[in-house]
Design the sequence.
DNA sequence: CGCGATTTGTGCACGCCTTCACAAGCGCCT
DNA sequence: AGGCGCTTGTGAAGGCGTGCACAAATCGCG
């Protein structure tokens, strides 16, 4: 299933046509590197792997290996060209297209997400808000008017929406997911605490806020039981 | 809870490990299992690993191995006792204590988190809201009054707060984290898009909403480039 | 022009996690 | 009581990710 092959031979300069297949762990870190690059803001032309790794909170060897996977643009003895590397990561992540995103469910959480400027500032355009509650339809949030979920197919086609965010209660999430898929959406970010079933070819990522707290709670519990024991040794457990 | 009756370290004499040390990957899945258990709601006394795995969206072998790590309470030929397993996982996660949580930053996102009932319904009590903006102090959100960040040490001590949530802009996050640590908080859930530096013994988990979208964007980009290539074979990439 | 300082790119080993496959154990039915 | 079917618990194998340590490459300077 997985083969190790390097797409780019070291002799081909210029274009990067072939799509490298990156390890999943690397993909998850690229956005971190990108954020770190944007936060540099001190006008340096280049940055070393050590410096960028520190800014992103990772090991420098890991960073170099990650970047090497995408046929990186570093210069030995100097470092990475900030502008070039930024552009390269943005290209790989497909952020140069400012993808259209729709959001379904403008309840408590959805309301906040609709107004979250972190989306707009980092490569995305929220172009439509939907809800099934007629009372909420028509409300304006951050310059967008909430539409009824029935309008999804039409709007999705008009705006070429490929990414959908689900911020509904769990009971409605699967139905909404089906609607999104039917409307042509092929990537879903799910905030509802439930498992979604989708056809092959559709990607789902899940964010469960309570689960994150529960994991922290476990570590609290563990730490509490350790301090009650003799011979406890302190150890860093940072992220 | 019940007696610890499994000594899984045959070499250590006498000292019963008060706490099983679970693989990190297992810990991250326990909340999923717990949610699946709560969602059963069909009154069944027992459930098989196959059934629970399906409800949680994982492989059944993985689930069995996970549960075996905590000295599981299953019966061969029958399955797991739902009530017992639920209690066991809740105990391990430390959820039987309804831990006190404070939230710093009641802006756009923090406002929504303060009102998110998923926290309350899954083992946590939000007991205090803080903000540095004097204009926001005094506002009431979901029955809690926003206090100034300067009151944090006092309130944290009174309420025995061990977990803090950061929902401030990135520029304020590190300072807030320092304040939380100084106030005795030992677990932090960080929604700000930045790297936090904390002392050893303090756990940090990070949720970056934009990163999740960027990862989806990558997969969109990949899928788009695959369909443009010959011999492209679609492949399932489930949750 | 050559040398040393610096930094990237990567081979390699190790440990964690996942998955398969099956033996061990339990309850039910005859 | 005994056998049979079902399900758990786990040994073993393979894959993936991480981090070390070093060779290769580049720049600046004398």
Sequence:
């Amino acid at each position: 299933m997985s083969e190790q092959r390097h797409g780019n031979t070291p002799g081909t300069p210029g274009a990067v046509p072939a799509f490298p297949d990156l390890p999943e762990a690397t993909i998850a870190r690229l956005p971190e590197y990108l954020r770190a690059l944007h936060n540099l803001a001190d006008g340096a032309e280049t940055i070393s792997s050590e410096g960028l790794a520190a800014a992103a909170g990772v090991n420098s060897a890991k960073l170099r290996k990650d970047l090497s996977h995408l046929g990186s643009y570093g210069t030995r003895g100097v470092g990475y060209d900030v502008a070039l590397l930024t552009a390269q990561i943005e290209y790989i992540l497909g952020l140069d297209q400012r993808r259209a995103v729709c959001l379904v469910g403008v309840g408590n959480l959805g309301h906040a997400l609709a107004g979250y400027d972190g989306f707009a500032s980092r490569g995305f355009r929220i172009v439509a808000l939907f809800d099934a509650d007629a009372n909420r339809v028509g409300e304006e949030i951050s310059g967008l008017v909430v539409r009824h979920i029935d309008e999804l197919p039409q709007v999705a086609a008009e705006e070429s929406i490929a990414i959908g965010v689900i911020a509904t209660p769990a009971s409605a999430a699967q139905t909404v997911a089906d609607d999104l898929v039917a409307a042509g959406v092929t990537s879903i970010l799910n905030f509802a605490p439930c498992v979604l079933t989708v056809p092959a070819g559709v990607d789902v990522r899940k964010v469960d806020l309570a689960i994150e707290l529960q994991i922290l709670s476990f570590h609290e519990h563990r730490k509490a039981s350790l301090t009650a024991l003799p011979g406890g040794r302190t150890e860093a457990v940072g992220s």
The CA atoms of residues 173 and 192 of chain A lie 6 Å apart. Strands of chain A lie at 46-47, 74-75, 79-81, 99-104, 124-131, 140-141, 144-148, 163-166, 187-190, 203-206.
